Amino acid sequence: MDETHRIVIKIRMPAKKTMDAAISSERNGKTPLVSFRGRPMPNEGFLAGYSALIDRYDLAMPLPHEVAAVSPRNLRHKADGWVIHPVGLHPADTDVGHLVFALKHEGVRLLILRKLFAVFDPAGLARALRLKPTSAYLRRLCHLYEWLGGPRLDAPDTAAGIYVDLINAAQQYGTAHGGRSRRFRINHNVAGTPDFCPLVFRTHKLDVLLAKGLEARARAVVDAALPETVARAAAFLLLSDSKASFAIEGEDPPRDRVQRWGVAIGQAGRWRFGVDALVALQRSLIDDRLVRLGLRQEGGFIGRRDAMNQPVPEHISAKAADLPSLLEGLVAFADRARAMGFDPVLTAACVAFGFVYIHPFEDGNGRIHRFLMHHVLADRGFTPPEIVFPISSTILGAIVEYKGVLEGTSRPLLDWIDWRPTAKGNVDVTVDSADFYRFFDATAHAEFLFECIERSVETALPEELGFLQHRDAFHRRVGEILDMSERTVDLLLRFLQQNHGTLSKRARTREFAALDEDEVQRLQAAYGELFTS
User: Fold this and answer.
1) Cα–Cα distance list, 453 to 44, 204, 344, 447, 457 (Å)
2) Can you state the angle between helices 344-358 and 443-455, rounded to 10 degrees?
């Protein structure tokens, strides 16, 4: 490095520590990057934390939604999937240095850790803990290494000191309480097991939604209505949700099939969750004359086939051989989340979206995925027992956003799951892919589901209850004006709704030709007072 370049660095880096970090990186033969794996950086920087380890070991996986780098200047910036840190935070360029940086600044990412721990030498991690036996970061890393299946480290048990949370509550959502691991004195505050453990990062949006107390607000809305009105609203919302769940799949089944599925949804919360129960639920939904029921015995994908019957996947499902462990892990996650006090909506997002990514059946996965949302919420007492939130109806109204959430996880995997076509036009996955389904980032899914529930609680449920209350009042007002059957009153109400409170010329000359002008005006006034005031 020439003297001129040294002078420039000294001018730009006023702190000696900052200057030394930048010079050290350049002496190691590194220059700042402007992109990594096709993701442009908002500012040039050096890879740090998880990104550096993904690069060092060429880990076969998509980049997380957000990764870290260190600026060669004293710059802090966040944009375009990058968090740029000032150069003073540049970690030691070792595996342990980048791992500690990752836990400190990026949280726990189990997919990266699982893939990394399978290929790196753990001796440096054990040695680091022996040198700093009280380090909370090193203790957490050692615990994660062994919990994710690594052999016992050559490191002593932590003899003293406080227990530290595995998940930092400032970064990610953990359980209200967790089992304690004495080996490294860790409070294991995650609901999952190594078979299935998606995590949710803390966001401002989720904090706001969690603080709204939607569970109590739903209870208050229901308690304010008459029981018979709630029962009628519940029946309507249940049928509407059942129809919407089929519509999301592009199906228009006969009414009896919709009603049967509505009955199944109505059992959510009273259903015993398990692999056998999932299979039984599929049997209640699918005609076994055309589809093989039960867990898939071969590969699976979502997408289309080309003119040569070759698969064109938009999502690759889990391998058939991995289904038992993935589903057992899914069930264990739901059970542990309940026992350990993990938030019900976050639990529902992890379980339901985890299921649909695994895609264990040949058919019925989408509807069962949405059933699981209902089940977890009802099982945890989040949903008032008298009703079912119209989640599928809300999803149908936000279908583009819903598909975007699904594709945000599934599409990036297409570049990392190798497969070959089968003679049947299916896919045969040729790599180990199970961890992609075990350890996905469920943050966007939790935000989406929470917003669906918010719309259900604050809009759909009150509107339906309010409509029924006004409808009953309208029936009473019509009875004060003239005699009319209940069916005819409902027809009148429908015409008034369609024409913004006035009877159309067609209705006045056909269905309601017998009414005089005074009666029409009084009926329209009654409608206006109840429905437009």
Assistant:
1) 41, 17, 12, 10, 6
2) 120
Beta strands in 228-321 (DSSP E): 301-305, 311-316
Question: Which tokens belong to 73?
Answer: 């200047």
Domain ranges for the chain, please list them: 1-109, 121-190, 209-456, 482-531
pTM as predicted: 0.89
Q: Residue 471 phi/psi, 5° resolution?
A: -65, -45
CB 89 within 8 A of CB 101: yes
Cβ(78)–Cβ(84) below 8 Å: yes
Q: Residue 64 corresponds to which amino acid? A: P
Nearest alpha carbon to residue 49 among 93, 18, 87 = 93
Tokens representing 170 are 């400032």
Using one digit for the tens of pLDDT, what is the confidence trace for 151-181?
999 999 998 889 999 999 999 999 998 889 9
What is the mean pLDDT, run by run of 10 residues, along the chain of 533 residues?
Answer: 33 35 44 93 94 97 96 89 93 96 98 97 96 96 97 94 95 93 96 97 97 95 89 86 88 82 85 92 80 91 91 96 98 97 98 98 93 95 90 93 96 96 94 97 98 94 87 87 88 89 89 89 88 74
> What CATH number does domain 209-456 carry, 1.20.1440.230, 1.10.3290.10, 1.10.357.10, 3.20.20.80?
1.10.3290.10
DSSP three-state, residue 315: strand
Q: Please check whether residue 99 is in contact with residue 53, taking contact to mean a CB–CB distance below 8 angstroms.
A: yes
